[in-house]
Amino acid sequence: MTKTCDNPDTTDPTGGADAAGATAPTGAIHPAAAPAHADGDAPRTPGPAGSASRAAGPAGPAGGEPVVARTREQLRAARAALGDGDIGVVMTMGALHEGHATLIRQARDTAGHVIVTIFLNPLQFGPREDLARYPRTTESDLEICRREGVDVVFMPTPSVVYPEGDPGVRVSAGPLGNVLEGQARPGHFDGVLTVVGKMLHLTRADHAYFGQKDAQQLLLIRRMARDLDFPAEVVAVPTVREPDGLALSSRNMYLGASDRETALCLSRALRAGAEAAVEGPSAVRRAARAVLVREPLALIDYLVLVDPATLEDVPEWYRGEALLAVAGRVGTTRLIDNLPVNIGPGGGALEVFSEDAGRGSYPDEAATQMTQTPP
How far is Cα 177 from Cα 181, in angstroms, rounded to an integer? Predict the structure, then answer.
């Protein structure tokens, strides 16, 4: 899957989430050759085109190394060798961490077989975003996949995913891709949706797992799957956090000790807002903003409370599920975080949204005003 790493900000699923844009840099990215593991076992590497060899017995819970496929032909052969059972896919851009591992575990628990894609997608990097600085951690990525019982790891280069170079046709994210993160990173979500669509086709997965942390990305992928009739089920997995509350992200490696302490204001603001959810939207916004203003070293891009289906600001009379999201820069690193909240009596923080989240409770007399932003 793909979710987002940064410096600058880059959504990782597929691009990401953290995560999964803009003008594509030229030239192919060649991941390092698959390394030997610390335990001395080499990962299963593909044989000739159209085949994928198994060096260490069966994949998945039975043990052994995942099949590593680097071409479309090798992926087709590896997928065919999986046999019966539905397929779950986790799309990533590499630099895997415990958040990705949680996605993989969810896939392993609910699907018969698991494919992980590791592809640094050039389409979602803008002209001012340094693709070359994105961390490449092939050895540890494969170790996590081995540990979590992944069956197949698809590690293509851009020339495999985009054989004719910069694609002439891309998936457009539409208006939902032009706000919040899309406003900060024009074209980013077009690149995310394009690669997610291609990976869904190439893996022919039955289920695709994405983190709630990249809420806008998750919403757009779900809309794409629904609007364009992709058969795969899009599964949301709750955000994984450090013990101090910081959301796990590949970009966290760019934070020094002092920056990391500053970054905690984002999750603290979200928690403060959720605790005020019973009082209504204005109380949520005030509580979250009060935390952020006490941290001058965090340069906040936005703090919003929006409808999770439309990304429109919710009015004061709104009751139901809403997305509380924040983005800002700490040092040189741009961070994003969010928390699903239930607004109104009995309200508070949620792990993920329900299937029909959005367009909560609007009194009839206020329906014509429901896109107005409260003061």
Answer: 8
